[in-house]
Amino acid sequence: MSDTTQSGPVLAADGTPLKKSLQKALRAQKLRALALVAPLLIFVLVTFIAPIADMLFRSVENQIVSRTLQNTVVALEDWDAEGGEAPGEAVYEALYWDMFLAAEAKEHTRLGTRLNYEQTGVSSLFRGTGRGVDDIGEDQIDALEDLNEAWEEESFWYELMTGGDGAAKDGSQLSAARERLSTLTTDSYRGNVGFEPGAEISALLPRTVSEYATFAVYTVFVEEDVVAEEEPWEAVKVALIEELKAGADLSGYSGPGAEELRAAQEMLADQPDIDYKAAFLKEDKDWGSIPVWQTIKTYSPPFTSGYFLNAVDLQKTVDGVEARPETQQIYIMLFQRTLFMSLVIMGSCILLGYPIAWILANLPVRTANLLLILVLLPFWTSLLVRTSAWKVMLQQQGVINDVLVWLGMVADESRLVMINNQFGTIVAMTHILLPFMILPMYSVMQTIPPTYLRAAKSLGATNWTAFWRVYFPQSVPGIGAGSILVFILAIGYYITPEIVGGTTGTFISNRIAYHISSSLNWGLAAALGSILLAAVLILYWAYDKIVGIDNVKLG
User: Fold this and answer.
1) CA dist 519 → 116, 333, 340, 514, 522 (Å)
2) Which domains are seen in the chain, by residue range?
3) Runs of H (alpha helix) within 377-494
4) Measured in Å, how far apart are the chain's first and last C-alpha atoms?
5) Which of these, 10, 27, 6, 29, lies nearest to 18 by C-alpha position?
6) What is the pTM of this model?
7) What is the chain's mean pLDDT, rounded?
8) Nearest-10 crossing angle of helices 154-162, 206-221
9) pLDDT of res. 339
């Protein structure tokens, strides 16, 4: 009898190696499991993760300044913000080109609103200037048009900028115009414009052609008009005036409009230069205000910590980070109030909910189920109705005060103030959140065998000792689950505090809601929400370290 030695891999029934067959089966099983959870994963990603990511991005995003004032931001780099003097002429000239395009695209008001969060009055400054920016250089433009009526003709400008039929084309100017508008408005400007600058005129008058190309793209894609049938913007004419006065060499040019260009250059030599600084100061004297320019320069980077600094009562200045004036320091106080009142509400829910949960857990099932319906009954009533009912109950002419006066416990002229303060918020929110505390505690208490208490008493323990040493420790997981649930819900509430809280009983969430819906300062709202989220996560981490999240049970 001889021993037979089997070499090689173990094979499955179909002849493939067993290890490979098992790996294939496990891979298929994982794919099936992933397919089952994929809808939920996508739903959570779209409705939860993506909004949080967007909120975090908005709390630091500040691209509107650098996007709208592209030339001005570059020109401000050389300005000494601490020198005590307003910027020079070059900055105001750059502001003109940026402001004119922003006003045409209706973006100047959004920029003014953004900067107004940091410097009061900037919004009206930008809005007013946007209405009058096309008057800058008006005298020189009038002189140009009085010289020759051709400068008012749409077809003349179009022929001048295209270089005439058969002229070499310069697509770079048009591409730059598309990019310029796309950066300003975040829209796309792709497609046929019906215009392409001539190469010769682009080399001769690059600034003028650039402004005309921007005008052409805007005319086609925004106003949906034909470029050749529209008179160009005042900025195009100002650009031409500046380049002709700067000494553009027309000696070798013989294309369309050559004669008109030479005549205009000769006439403009006697015209005064456009004083951009004086023009802006004429529109609004605040353009000479150093704090306005400091604000523009401070918030010119595409990303900023300013929102987070404002959220903790600080501010970003040219000198660094500084505390905001005491009259404007409200957010730290609101965060402290929110945490304190949430803890008080959680504690009151524990004190009121524990006895109710204990009674429900120790009653016969039929009776307990009947009483549990009463606990769940508030869920069948609108949150707004329940909160409004407390407003009726707690006000000075309300039910509670009337009863106290009727019983002689309170004088009619000394009615209790129980609404529009912290007391009203705590009472109303405790009533609303109490079921969220009772249900977890009740579900855990149901699992505690009553024989444990009887055994403790048979060994000589008093009722209190049996409860405290035997029953209560086993109910702690239910208290932990209810506490986390109530605290997280309370810290983010804003409807109830808004209705019954007044000025001293509102939460930080009310301020977040205000910035989202009223002031439209979404960046500050995002920063406040991010800090609130971080605070909740830190408290959750601390709870896990102290109590242990594994000890939290729902029954």
Assistant:
1) 11, 20, 27, 6, 8
2) 137-273 (no CATH), 331-551 (1.10.3720.10)
3) 383-394, 399-407, 422-445, 451-458, 463-466, 472-491
4) 65
5) 10
6) 0.81
7) 89
8) 120
9) 93
